Amino acid sequence: MQALITGASSGIGRDLARVLASKNYDLILVARRQNRLEELQKELKTKVKIITLDLSITSNVYKLYELTKNEDIDILINNAGFGLFGLFNETDLDTELKMIDLNIKTYHILTKLFLQDMLKKDQGYILNVCSSAGFMAGPKMSTYYASKNYVTKLTMAINEELRKEKSHVQISALCPGPVATEFNEVAHGTFAIREANSYDVAKYAIKKLMQHKMLIVPTFLMKITLFLNRFAPYRLSLIISYHIQNRKSKRKE
Prior knowledge:
Elements (H helix, E strand, L loop, with lengths): L1 E5 L4 H12 L3 E6 L2 H10 L4 E5 L5 H11 L6 E4 L14 H29 L2 E6 L12 H23 L4 E6 L8 H5 L10 H13 L4 E2 L3 H10 L4 H15 L5
Parallel strand pairs: 1-2, 1-4, 2-3, 4-5, 5-6, 6-7
Helix pairs in contact: 1-7, 3-4, 4-5
C-alpha cells in the first residue's frame, strides 16, 4: 500500500504521513523544503520517497504526476496550500495568484489525473485537505476562503458522480477549523479560538476517509458551527466572519 502526500513537510501533511506510516503505508512525500522531508523520512519506519517541488508552479504539478503515475498510488492526499490575511484591496496580488495556483489549480490537476488512473483500477482514495472556510465567505481573508470553497465543492461534486456510478474509488474533503500548524506564520495572522491538535486531526481524517465519509469535520465545535451556518442569512454570516478575521489579523507595529 502506498500514499502520496503533498505539503508533507509540516502541519497536517506531516502528521498524515505519520498516521499512514503507522498503518504500514509506504509514502511519497512532496514539499518545497527538502531538509524537512529528510527529517520526516528518517523518523518514519516504512519506505519513504521524497520529492522536492514547488507545486505553485503548474509545470511542476505535471512533473509530479509524471514522476509518480506508475507508482500504484492507493491514496492521494492533496494538502499543499497557504492563506493570507488582509483587506482585498491591500493584499499582494502576486501572492494571491500564487495561492490560487497552489490551492486550486494544483488540487484540480492532481485530483483529475490520479482519479482517472484510480477509476481504471476501480479502487483508491483521494483526500483533499480543505477547510471549514470552504462553506463560508471570509472578509479579510477573501482569496483563501474562495479557494477552499472551490476545492470543497469540487470534491463534493466528484463524490456524487462516483456514488452514482457505484465506483469503489472514494474522494473526501477534510474540513477542519483552526489547527495548530505553521499556517498562521505564513498567513501573517493568529486564530482567536483554540486550535485543534494536528495529529488528532490527521488520525481522524484517515479513519473517516476509510469509512467513505464525504465531508470530514474533526471537532464538535466546527460541526456545530457549520450546522448553524446553514441557517444564517448571508449578511449575518459575513458580519460574523469579518469579526472573527478582524480579531485574528496581526497589526504591524
